[in-house]
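User: Can you help me understand a structure? I only have the sequence.
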Amino acid sequence: MKIEVKNDDKVIINDFEFYGHIDQNQGCSDCKFNLVYYEDFDAYFCPQCNNWTESKCSDPDCTYCPNRPEKPLPHK
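Assistant: Let's start by predicting it. Here is the structure, written out as tokens:
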């Protein structure tokens, strides 16, 4: 897996580009890989496991969770 950071606010994982950052202080509870913040969905995920670290919220007015895909990375 190739991970790059561009201009401090874009993350590129295997040619998939999005706004966010790599959190150097938080690791996945399963594999210990650094978590990545995905700005469009206001959530962290593990790029190695391709799983979100938190569930969708139950707020009916939330602008993030209803549009969040099941997996963060589309190609994995």
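Now, to help you interpret it: The mean pLDDT is 95. Residues 3-67 form one domain. Let me know which part you'd like to focus on.
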